[in-house]
Design brief:
Elements (H helix, E strand, L loop, with lengths): L2 E2 L1 E3 L2 E3 L6 E6 L4 E7 L3 H18 L4 H17 L1 H12 L3 H18 L2 H4 L3 E7 L2 E9 L2 E5 L7 H4 L2 H6 L3 E5 L6 H12 L7 E3 L4 H9 L3 E7 L2 H13 L3 E5 L4 E5 L5 H13 L9 E7 L3 H13 L19 H16 L3 E4 L18 E4 L6 H4 L6 E7 L2 H10 L2 E2 L1 E5 L3 H10 L4 E4 L15 E2 L2 E2 L6 H7 L1 E9 L18
Parallel strand pairs: 1-5, 8-9, 8-11, 9-10, 11-12, 13-14, 13-19, 14-17, 16-17, 19-20
Antiparallel strand pairs: 2-3, 4-5, 6-7, 7-23, 12-22, 15-16, 18-21
Helix pairs in contact: 1-9, 2-4, 2-8, 3-4, 3-8, 11-12
């Protein structure tokens, strides 16, 4: 059985740890690899390699950084299929969905290719007599990313392209559940000409995470994962003086008004709830049926949910694959049980699904639960599976109040033909990303991604302009080159412009 190793200083290494984790194929339920679970010493080695590389990489010209980033972009683009296969085999999502994930990551790489424009400073000539003022931004040093299983290629690509293009070096701690894509990316970076030590990958669990958070040479930490862990990451890293952006969990709502095109809304709700088996931080997990839209909408969604083709990710006929682990399957089915026991109406039941030829796979079928109350577990918990909970509301204002009372504020959507209702919604909801007739409003790379409330800890969103700001810090220079006769024209007064 192959062992997946770290990538430190431009080469693979097993490091010092003897601990190993199992990497499964979710479609078969069988272990396919083992992964090294890094020790504190392994993190120390990766940070040391990154710190050494920073001395020269931070001084590399913008032209050189850009050339390497363009090379990297071409290599990733040429290997989309192979990266998607790594993702499908270890995460379980279907190949088309995995390829789409890589494409969204590529958009951030392309954004980072424009780093010369993004790092342009400001200049004020003759701010005072004979005095000029200008500013520029410098890299921080060693930056780290701690990323989740659900997007093993895209979410890391939200971090390291921007960080590295800005002149930082990077240590990535990907999910130990699907680690292979990160190692392959590291090899592509080396082929692109990135110097050894600029990008490093350390696999592991909590020991590796805590070592990153404690390390004095790590200047900034980016994280995407659940809210409890995001809060922990933010507290621990902030306590050691690091910059932190920690993106947490979500309970994304989509409200459907009676004036919406219900066929359109139902199709997009189905795709947004069950794509990637619901294992997306932007998946729609709660639909709010407003007024008279409810019953007709539920008929459509139930029919469409029952037509979703569930199967192994490598099968081109599959529209939805398994969930990532047996434990995830058990937890999701347990929450469906809870919803039924607490009085919700189960319209489509995905429990106990068996896929022929893959009877041991971690499959849960699309599930639709109507008449959900905000106190029920299926509403309060982040299910992270193919389960759509449906709440009823009397009007758009009640739907807005429902969303605002939820502790999460990641993404939300409205389906309507009313511009007035859409505008009231977008201004009224306290959520970071909003879709109008768009169920999964993940912004393009030249905007920034991030939620509000318990969906984000820290003050900077990820990638885009805020990503550049997060991975750099500003310097302001006030400059004067006086004539010789004024060289000793000093004053004890507080300096002012004149």
């Amino acid at each position: 059985m192959a062992t997946i190793q770290h990538w430190i200083g431009g080469e693979f290494t097993a490091g010092t740890s003897t601990r190993r984790g199992a990497v499964y194929n979710p479609a078969t339920g069988e272990q396919q690899h083992e992964v090294v679970l890094g020790s504190t010493a392994d993190v120390d080695a990766a940070v040391a390699a990154a710190k050494t590389a920073f001395a020269s990489w931070s001084q590399a010209s913008l032209s050189r950084r850009t050339k390497i980033m363009f090379n990297f972009r071409e290599l990733v683009n040429a290997n989309v299929k192979r990266i998607a296969e790594f993702i499908s085999d270890e995460h379980g999502k279907v190949l088309s969905d995995a390829a789409g994930e890589v494409q969204r990551g590529l958009e951030v790489i392309e954004f980072a290719c424009g780093i010369p424009q993004l790092l342009k400073g400001e200049y004020s000539d003759q701010a005072s007599t004979g005095v000029d003022v200008f500013s520029f931004r410098e890299p921080l040093g060693v930056c780290a990313g701690i990323t989740p299983f659900n997007f093993p290629a895209m979410v890391p690509m939200w971090m390291y392209p921007v960080a590295i293009a800005c002149g930082n070096t990077f240590v990535l701690k990907p999910s130990e559940r699907d680690p292979s894509a990160s190692n392959f990316i590291a090899e592509l970076f080396k082929q692109a000409g990135l110097p050894d030590g600029v990008f490093n990958v350390v696999h592991g669990d909590k020991e590796a995470v805590d070592a990153v958070l404690r390390h004095p040479d790590v200047a900034a930490v980016s994280f995407v994962g659940s809210t409890p862990i995001a809060r922990y990451i933010h507290q621990q890293a902030s306590a050691t003086g690091k910059r932190v952006q920690a993106l947490g969990g979500a309970k994304n709502h989509a409200i459907v008004l009676p004036d919406a095109d219900l066929d359109f809304a139902a199709g997009h709700l189905t795709a947004a709830a069950f794509g990637s088996a619901g294992e997306r931080c932007m998946a729609i997990s709660a639909a709010v049926a407003v007024g008279g839209a409810g019953d007709a909408l539920m008929d459509l969604v139930s029919r469409m949910a029952g037509e979703v083709v569930v199967g192994p990710g490598r099968d081109p006929k599959s529209e939805m694959g398994p969930v990532v682990t047996a434990a995830a399957k058990q937890r999701i089915e347990g929450l469906i049980d809870s919803g039924e026991q607490q009085g919700a109406k189960l319209l489509v039941d995905g429990r106990g699904l068996r896929v022929p030829g893959h009877e041991n796979g971690f499959f849960v079928g699309p599930t639709v639960i109507d008449q959900v109350q905000p106190t029920m577990d299926v509403y309060t918990e982040e299910i992270f599976g193919p389960v759509l909970s449906v709440v009823r509301a009397d009007d758009v204002d009640a739907a807005i109040d429902l969303i605002n009372s939820n502790p999460y504020g990641n993404g939300t959507a409205i389906f309507t033909s009313s511009g007035e209702a859409a505008r009231r919604f977008q201004r009224g909801v306290r959520v970071g990303m909003i879709g109008i007739n768009v169920p999964i409003p993940v912004p393009m790379a030249y905007y920034s991604f991030g939620g509000w409330k318990d969906s984000l800890f820290g003050d900077k969103h990820i990638h885009g302009p805020e990503g550049v700001s997060f991975y750099t810090r500003g310097k302001v220079v006030t400059s004067r080159w006086p004539h010789v006769e004024h060289a000793h024209d000093a004053s004890l007064h507080f300096p002012t412009a004149s």
